[in-house]
Amino acid sequence: MEERYFKINSDNIKHNKFSLARSESAHFINSLRGKTNDMICLLDGCGRAYKSKITSINEDLVSGVIQEEMLNYGESRFDINLVIGMIKGSRMDMIIEKATELGVKSIQPIMFDRCIKKKINIERAQRIIESAAKQSGRSFFPKILPLSKLNNWISENTVNINILYHINGSDFLKDVLINDKKSYNVIIGPEGDFSDSELNTLDKIKPITINLGPRRLRSETSAIVGLANLNQILNY
C-alpha cells in the first residue's frame, strides 16, 4: 500500500499517542476518505517519522497510536545545501519544491548583481517546502534561509565543499568525494549569469566547477540536474 504522509508537531505526541492538527485531519478525512485502522506515516520535520495507526475520528479531529519511530526517514547520509540566485516568477517556487524533493537540507537565496527579483516570501517558501517534503516522504523539512548577499554568505561558510555549476566549469563531479566530506554547498547562478566580480569572489573559496553540458541551462534546470547528479554519485 502506498504510504500516506502527514505533518505532526512534537507537542501533539504523548505516550505513543498522537492527534493530527485540524488541517491535516481535514486532509485525511475529506481528501483521502480515511478511516479508522488506516496506517499512516507521521513526519515531524526534524528528522523523525512515525509509523502510526488511526484509532479515532472525532468529527474533524483524527488521532491514533504510534507503532514505530524511524530516525532520518527519507534522508541521505550527506547534507546538501542549495545556494541559488533569486529568480523571478513562479520558477523560484519550483526550485524550492524540487530541491526539497531532491533532499537538500537548506536553501540559501542570494541577491546576485544580475538578479531582478529583490525579495522572497519566507512563509510561502515554508509552505512549499512542507508540501513537497510530505509528498516525497522526508522526515526533515529543509530550512529556507533569509535572503543574503554573496560576500556575507561566503564569510559564514568556510567548512563545506563548494560545488559551482557553471558553463565554464572544468572539474569532474566525482572529485567531490576526495576528502570524504559529509556536507556540500551547491551554488547556482542567477538569470543572466554571475558578474565577473562575483566569479572572482567565488574563486576565493576554490569551488569545484562543474559544466553540465554544451547548452546554456536556465537556473532552475541547472539546480535540478546538478542536485540529481550529486545525489546519484553520493548515494552509490
Task: Give the tally of β-strands.
Answer: 12
> Could you give the order of strands across the largest sheet?
1-4-5-6-3-2
Number of helical regions: 6
Q: Cα distance, first to last residue?
A: 27 Å
What number is the mean pLDDT? 92
The level 1 CATH classification of the largest domain is: Alpha Beta
The CATH topology assignment of the largest domain is Alpha/beta knot
> What is the overall silhouette?
elongated
| Helical content band | 25-40%
Radius of gyration: 20 Å
Main β-sheet: number of strands, strand sense, barrel status?
6 strands, mixed
Annotated CATH homologous superfamily of the largest domain: SPOUT methyltransferase, trefoil knot domain
Strand content: 25-35%
What does it look like?
The structure is a single chain. The chain contains six helices and twelve strands. The protein is an alpha/beta fold and 236 residues long. The chain folds into two domains: 5-71, Ribosomal Protein L25, Chain P, CATH 2.40.240.20; 79-234, SPOUT methyltransferase, trefoil knot domain (Alpha/beta knot), CATH 3.40.1280. The strands form two sheets. It has a six-stranded mixed beta sheet with strand order 1-4-5-6-3-2. Strand 2 (13-14) and strand 3 form a beta hairpin. The longest helix has 16 residues, at 219-234. It starts with a strand and ends with a helix. The model has no long low-confidence stretch (mean pLDDT 92).
